[in-house]
Design a protein that fits this description.
Elements: E1 3-6, H1 14-25, E2 30-32, E3 39-43, H2 47-57, E4 66-68, H3 72-78, H4 83-91, E5 97-102, E6 118-122, H5 127-136, E7 140-144, H6 157-163, E8 170-173, E9 183-186, E10 193-196
Parallel strand pairs: 1-8, 2-8, 4-6, 5-9
Antiparallel strand pairs: 2-3, 3-7, 4-7, 5-6, 9-10
Helix pairs in contact: 1-5
Organism: Streptomyces wedmorensis
Enzyme class: transferase
EC number: 2.7.7.87
Length: about 210
């Protein structure tokens, strides 16, 4: 059964955040809130966590996982980013955007798009997510909590606990965070390509 953690959305309890971070370090798969919708998260190098996310979401090997980063220092270690792209990404973060970029050697091979060798990265604008990333001290491997054959992500922590009780190890609940996933912009070809229109404004990339 999944452990259930309830935190304040604006002032999350440090002891609770620390407990969730410890569980992630020990290989747990957690459901947690972001500034777009809930996500599944696990430690960057966790093969088991990756396999479980693929199973829950019924994903193939062409799916772009997202590396949730606390700041640009973390993001810059994971992807190759030139000056023009840097300015565009910087202007849009933190926020509800995922950027697809060529990965560095710091990213485990099983996370990369098999042909493009790219990965998704984002810096969230959400108090609880940022608190978790700060406590964890490393990027969090993530994927939107959108179940197969369902049009919208799950939005309530109690419902996630109920539906995925035996598939995740923990649920971090800070209340409703919306149903719209991030806007996804692919910069791997140099020019921005909008792959998915979501919560982030796409005007600057058009």
């Amino acid at each position: 059964m999944a452990k259930y953690f309830d935190v304040h959305p604006d002032n999350p309890q440090h002891r609770t955040i620390s407990a969730v971070a410890d569980s992630i370090r020990n290989g747990a798969l957690v459901a947690y809130p972001t500034d777009s919708c809930y996500a599944l998260g696990t430690r960057l190098g966790s093969r088991d966590g990756i396999s479980r996310i693929r199973a829950i979401r019924d994903l193939d090997d062409r799916h772009h996982f997202t590396l949730m980063c606390a700041n640009f220092a973390q993001l810059g270690q994971l992807v190759h980013i030139d000056n023009d792209v840097f300015r565009a990404v910087k202007a849009s973060t933190p926020g509800a955007y995922t950027f697809i970029l060529p990965a560095t050697k710091e990213v485990p091979r099983q996370l990369l798009h098999p042909k493009k060798k790219t990965v998704g990265v984002r810096i969230p604008d959400h108090v609880v997510t940022q608190a978790l990333l700060a406590e964890l001290g490393e990027p969090l491997l993530s994927s939107t909590l959108l179940l197969p054959d369902e049009a919208e992500p799950l939005t309530q922590g109690w419902e996630i606990k109920e539906r995925l009780d035996h598939q995740v190890d923990a649920v971090l609940d800070s209340g409703d965070c919306g149903t719209e996933p991030t806007t996804v912009v692919d910069f791997s070809g140099g020019e921005p390509e909008i792959v998915r229109r979501g919560a982030g404004d796409t005007t600057r990339f058009e």
